[in-house]
Amino acid sequence: MSTVEAEHSDEKIIAKSVLKKKGQLTIPKEVRKMLDLKENDELDFSVEGGKIILRPVITIAKDQMWFWTKEWQEAEREVDSDIEHGRVHSFTDVDDAIKFLKSE
């Protein structure tokens, strides 16, 4: 068997695999490790310029979609900033927290 590579390619080949019966293909260990791919991960296939492009798919459960909305992520960034800049308060009990809220 011989391998022919494009003469003017700037791509670096990391590993190779052989297409098997029924279209099965093993993603080499090096590639799985680089992309942190695990069993049952989903991949998108596309063809661009005569090349097969595989992209990992990140699936979010429907009951977790709220966390990834634009509004929620903006609020998360605001909270992170408040924590980073010390704009937080700690209380030993609920009464102290209520007292603080009423003083503002």
Automatic annotation (TrEMBL):
Positions the record marks as coiled coil are none
Enumerate the spans annotated as SpoVT-AbrB domain.
14-59
Keyword DNA-binding listed: yes
Q: Which keywords are on file for this protein?
A: DNA-binding
Q: Which domain of life is it from?
A: Bacteria
DNA-binding as a keyword?
A: yes
Q: Which SMART domains did the record assign?
A: SpoVT_AbrB
* Gene Ontology molecular functions: DNA binding
* One Pfam family linked to the record: MazE_antitoxin
Tell me the InterPro entries matching this sequence: SpoVT-AbrB_dom, SpoVT-AbrB_sf
Q: What is this protein called?
A: AbrB/MazE/SpoVT family DNA-binding domain-containing protein
Q: What is the protein's species of origin?
A: Sporolactobacillus shoreae
Taxonomy of origin reads: Bacteria, Bacillati, Bacillota, Bacilli, Bacillales
